[in-house]
Amino acid sequence: MKPVILITGATRGIGFAAARQLAARGAQVIIASRDGARAAEAAARVGSGTSSVTLDITDQASVEAAVKQIEDQFGRLDVLANNSAILLDHYQSLLELKPEVLLETLNTNVVGTLRVCQAFAPLLAKSSAPRIVNVSSGAGQLDGEPQSWAPAYCISKTALNMLTQQLTAALPDVMVNSMCPGWCRTEMGGSEAPRTPDEGADTLTWLALDAPHTLRGKFVKDRAVIPW
Question: Catalytic one among 153, 155, 160, 197?
Answer without folding.
Answer: 153
